[in-house]
Recover the amino acids of this structure.
């Protein structure tokens, strides 16, 4: 686990009379190219002050978050927010697209109100332009969400929103699309992936409706999720009822 590892490295480093900082970053490919990354640092304050000139080369929003492990915990909070926010970004833009709205114009308005976020104003613009060039690998984001979920479990903390998004990404890799299974736009559940999932869902719905294989629609949804790779928990007493 990230927090435990950071604390262990810090302790071992101290024993060997060397120093360590956990300093994860955020800002994606764009932030890295422009030297505008956010850097969240955990560890001794005096060591943080000494290495600040190096941090300033690659970032501009830099903060000492506290003791060893604090940087990692801040990063996890960051990833949880991004994960949950991207679902809203994609569903919002998908709704606007289906109602034949101009996506850039929609972003101009909602991106300045209560729904404003970096994700809608930056990644949303990319989606609106059809720019799905990768900026982050799916496997890395799944790893980050897994770490956050493991830490939450250790603290007996329920994060159902994060768990659902985690399953969406796992489902995306299980669909077998070469590019989508390797990478997505930044850390987002990009619209291409979302549309692909919806089309797969629609295909299953039409197939099983035509063959009338499932009597009860309440079980049908779960059946489709299973077919698409969603590992959702359900009661063992629930069974798919088919002819």
């Amino acid at each position: 686990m990230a927090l435990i590892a950071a604390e262990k490295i810090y302790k071992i480093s101290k024993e060997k009379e060397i120093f360590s900082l956990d300093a994860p970053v955020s800002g994606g490919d764009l932030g890295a190219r422009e030297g505008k990354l956010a850097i969240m640092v955990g560890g001794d304050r005096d060591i943080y002050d000494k290495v600040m000139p190096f941090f300033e080369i690659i970032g501009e929003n830099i903060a000492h978050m506290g003791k060893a492990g604090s940087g990692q915990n801040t990063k996890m909070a960051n990833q949880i927010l991004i994960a949950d926010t991207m679902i809203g970004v994609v569903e919002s833009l998908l709704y606007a697209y289906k109602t034949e709205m101009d996506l850039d114009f929609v972003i101009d308005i909602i991106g300045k109100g209560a729904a404003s976020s970096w994700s809608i104003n930056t990644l949303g613009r990319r989606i609106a332009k059809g720019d799905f060039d990768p900026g982050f690998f799916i496997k890395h984001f799944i790893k980050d969400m897994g770490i956050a979920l493991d830490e939450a479990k250790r603290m007996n903390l329920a994060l159902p929103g994060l768990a659902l998004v985690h399953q969406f990404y796992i489902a995306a890799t299980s669909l077998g699309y070469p590019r989508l299974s390797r990478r997505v736009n930044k850390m987002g559940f990009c619209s291409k992936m979302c549309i692909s999932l919806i089309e797969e869902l629609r295909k299953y719905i039409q197939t099983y409706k035509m063959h009338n294989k499932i009597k009860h629609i309440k079980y049908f949804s779960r059946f489709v999720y299973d077919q698409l790779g969603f590992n959702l928990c359900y009661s063992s007493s629930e069974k798919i009822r088919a002819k």
In short: Residues 160 and 229 are 18 Å apart (CA to CA). Confidence is low (pLDDT under 50) at residues 177-191, 214-218, 227-243.
